[in-house]
Amino acid sequence: MLKKIFVTLCLLLVIAIGVGGFFYVKIINFANQPLNPQFLMSQPKPFLVIEKGTSSQKLAQLLAERNIVAETHWLPYFLRLSPSLGKFKAGVYSLENLHTVSELLAHLNSGKEVQLNAQFIEGKTFKDWREQLRNTPYLTQTLADKSEQEIAQLLAIPHTKLEGWLAPDTYSYVPYSNDLTLLKRAYQQQQQALSQIWQQRKIDLPLASPYEMLILASIVEKETAVASERPKVASVFINRLNLKMKLQTDPTVIYGMGEHYKGNIRKKDLLEATPYNTYVIDGLPPTPIAMPSRASLEAVAQPDSTDYLYFVADGSGGHKFSRTLAEHNRAVQEWIQLERKKQRENLNK
């Protein structure tokens, strides 16, 4: 009798070991199972969003719904064998360069959320930036039906125009964050830069406020793409303001023309009275005309000490600076002749 019981127990033990071994192999195979390549190739950047408090059952359901992993019912059993991989951290995770279920779980435990970049260029207007926001991938759009004034109110900006108030830079963001959050960061960064640079300005500048510095920096930004020239360009405008001369700068005229600008400025455009026509108005225009970089803000706060009052393109990307109108007129004629020569050479090609 005891012998039969012993044999039965041994048989049951063998069966249990066999069944346990079978399930163990299944679980290990599940852990080493490759992620579904069709899902990984279905979008440019495959992401997985893990919400706070996600359990192993909920993760298994998510992986099944997204068709990322097959036979997800093995997931809770695998996590019993490897409990350290069950501490998922909420966030948005890239699935790029992940190959197996175990690699995926390790990644979800790392807390290393994917970061994307949005680059906002200096010298652009808010209209340009807004179009870029609309086309920024994996960014939740909340401002599509908002006017510029409404967006300014959401950012707590005390103006109806957003030109100048947002810092050009490359901003990292997590997929599915929203467009307003990105603009808030750009506004806060510009505010910090404006405050800091204003405190470090030359004390004799003809600028009454940080906002006037912001306006002039936007003009400098539009006038030259040569970084080394910015303090010199700024000095021309500072000198003109000190002498009560009109700024006479084309970018402000273009900004004031708005949609009417078709690529060139006519004589009647220079004579038309608009708030931004610095050939007509005295002093600065009422608002910035573009998003100035920190370098342009610094150039206005610390301009070169010069007696230049004019500048014109030199034909090589930079500018020629002049002290008198006669010098400037000669420089203009030199530039015209150079442009005509280039046109003739292009026609002969």
Can you give a write-up of this model?
- The chain has 349 residues and is mainly α.
- The chain folds into 3 domains: 26-110, 2-Layer Sandwich (Dna Ligase, domain 1); 116-194, no CATH class; 202-348, no CATH class.
- It is built from 14 helices and 6 strands.
- The chain has helices at residues 2-31, 37-40, 56-65, 75-81, 101-110, 126-134, 148-154, 179-199, 210-223, 230-242, 250-257, 267-271, 294-301, 325-347; strands at 47-50, 91-94, 116-120, 169-173, 310-313, 319-322.
- The strands form 3 sheets. The chain has a two-stranded antiparallel ribbon with strand order 1-2. A two-stranded antiparallel ribbon has the order 3-4.
- Helix 9 packs across helix 10 (230-242), helix 9 (210-223) packs across helix 13 and helix 10 (230-242) packs across helix 13 (294-301).
- The protein is elongated.
- The relative contact order is 0.09.
Quick overview of this protein structure:
The chain is mainly alpha-helical and 349 residues long.
Helix content: 40-55%
List the domain count as a whole number: 3
Shape: elongated
**What is the element string, with H for helices and E for strands?**
HHEHHEHEHHEHHHHHHEEH
Biggest sheet character: 2 strands, antiparallel
- What's the total count of β strands? 6
* Cα end-to-end separation: 110 Å
Whole-angstrom Rg:
32 Å
Strand order of the largest sheet: 1-2
Question: How confident is the prediction overall: mean pLDDT?
Answer: 85
Question: pLDDT below 50 for ≥5 consecutive residues: which ranges?
Answer: 6-22
Count every helix, treating DSSP H or I runs of 4 or more residues as helices.
Answer: 14
The percent range for strand residues is 5-15%
Structure class? mainly alpha
